[in-house]
Structures are given as structure tokens and as C-alpha cells.
Here is the input.
Amino acid sequence: MPELDLDALQNEMTSWRRHLHAHPEFGFEEKATAAFVAAQLREFGLDDVVEGVGGTGVVGTLKRGTGNRAIALRADMDALRITEQGDLPYRSRTPGVMHACGHDGHTTMLLGAAKLLAAEGGFDGTVRFLFQPAEEWGKGALAMLADGLMERFPFDEVYGLHNMPGLAVGQFQTRTGAFMSAEDNFEIVLKGVGGHAARPHSGNEVLVAACALVTSLQTIVSRRLSPADIAVVSVTELLTDGTRNALPGMARILGDARSFRPEVSAEIERQMGIIAQGTAQSYNLGAELHYTREFVPLVNDEALVQEALGAARTALGEANVSVAREPMTGSEDFARFLDHVPGCFAYVGNGEASAPLHNPGFDFNDDGLRHGAAFHAAIVRRRLPVA
Ligand SMILES: [Zn+2]
Ligand SMILES: [Zn+2]
Here is the structure.
């Protein structure tokens, strides 16, 4: 097999990435992105390219040799409803939508790996390239799975990358076990009787109770959960139907909770119910709790983390590979694939000077493209070795 010129591939990937950055699409609307991805995969000569998997998802398949094992590599394609700031020549051409999480870079790194593996081979078995829609709202992986992903395109292991601001370009980091958190959303509705601001005793307003409730919710993590468990309960909105001279008869308290084990998530919901009902009762109000689970915890497989670290050392050098000390309380719907097969999710550096993820000034660092593509190729060759 001829070896691909990595400098030429880096230049090509940079142009793909900037094209995708200029044309961002929100979750399940990634039509042009998916068409671009599918056209590239067909040009690389993959054995099979299927569009429309789980809405706008694309699955490419590449086979070499006679091995019957299959490895999946996954990238996300969606952008966010954020207005891009700055004056990059390739800035978003779509008002109000931008690639503020670097999924343009993730898609490009996986395209680069597909081109490299299609040209050079060096593995024995099947590679599935999964380009998923709608990661940001936690629906895209589930949509692909519901569309028969595992039955139509079976695989034994799955790997995925996310860029990480603050980590130097060329660096690779992952962790065994819990790596990213579950995300739950909650809404507590307090119901009383609104009235005149000058005559509080004539109604039964909800705002004082709502303030007490927001404070009491802080005790779930500090007093109800084991200090050994990592969890976050964040109240993010307090909305009422009051106005300057009218006391509210209804309050909505909304927020977000993070945890790493289903038992902890269940306990947060249970304690929230107790506190909401108890507070409401002491103020003679009604209370309703609506609690939903949006993302499951991302738990990396112990053995495959070692394999991923090994592949990263080969591709990026020993000094550029590290184990993360702590799990991160962000969420990723890559975790949905790990419900079906073992795998490993990892970070690649986006540079110390990078703006934070989801910031209007964020930009994926193109210098990292070759490193991500090299890791993808290395894990395939390590897990599907030529005999
Ligand atoms: Zn994001
Ligand atoms: Zn992301």
C-alpha cells in the first residue's frame, strides 16, 4: 500500500475543517455536512457509505483482509445556536449558528483517518466510521441506535475523540471508568395564590418559599450524598408570574444535576422530591417535581483505555499521553454507544490559548487535526492487527 503524505493530508484536512466551520448546521439539520462527509468517503473508496442513519447520520464501512472483528470510530457533526464573534476568514456564514464545540474538527479528523486507512490499509477486519447528528442535545446517538445501527453495521468496540481547551495541541488524555457525567434536568413548580403586593396576607404568594427552596436544594450534595460521590445540583432559573406590585401565585425553579452513577442520580431526584414537598407544605403551597434524564454517565472500559493509551503513545509519542486525574462534569452522548459495546472516549488538546467550549470566540485548532487522525488510524491497526 502506498503511504499517504501526512503534510498533504494535514493541508487537505484544514481546508475541509474550514469549509465545515463556515457552514455549521444545528442537530438533525446536518444535511449539507452529511452530504459533504458521504461524498468524501465515497471518493476515498470505502466499501460502503450509507446516509440517513438516525436522521442525518452517515456510516462508512472499510474492510481489509479476512478478519471478522469490527471497530467503530465516531465523530459528531452538529453545531450550536450561538452567534460567532471575531473575524476569521472562514467564520460562520449562517447567522446564529456556529461550531462552538469543535465538532467541525472531530468530523474532519475522522475523515482524515478514513482517507489514510483507505489508502494505506495496515489492518485486518472492518472499520465503521460513524458520523452522528445532534450530539449537543443528547439525541443523535440514540437516533442512530434506534435506526438499527448495531444490527445493520455491527461492531465490537467504539472509540471517540473530543477536543479540549487548555490541553496542549498534540496531547491525548483519557481515564478508566467514569469519565464524563450524567445530565439530569429538573423543574419544580410551586402553586399558591397571588395578590396585591401591599396585602400579602390576603393571598398565599410563592416567592419567599421559592427562595427558601433554592437554598434548601444546596443541601442535597452537601448533606444528603456521600462525600465520596461527585455530584452537582445547579438551580439555573427562577421564574414567577408576579410583577412589580403583584405577588406571584406561581413559581418555576429549573436546573441541571450531574452525577456519575445511576444510584446517585436516583437519590438526587428522591431528595429533591422530599425537599420540594416539605418546603411547599410548610408554606401551605402545592409543589410538582418534573425530573428527566438527558445524558447517561460515560464509563470507559478498563482494558480498552489501556489499548487507547497504547495507540496514542504510538501515534503521538509517550510524553504526549496522560491519564486524567478526575472525571469531568460535562456530558457526552457517546456514552449511549458504550451501553452496547465497550470502548474509550478521549480528549485531544485544542491548545492553552483556546477559548472555552461553547464560547462565541471558540475555534477548533487545525494543528490538532493530524494528531486526531493519527490516533484513529493507530487504534484501528492496534485492535485489528495484520497477522
Ligand atoms: Zn458541546
Ligand atoms: Zn462537543
Q: What stands out?
A: The first helix runs from residue 6 to 22. The chain has a mean pLDDT of 97. Residues 176 and 303 are 8 Å apart (CA to CA).
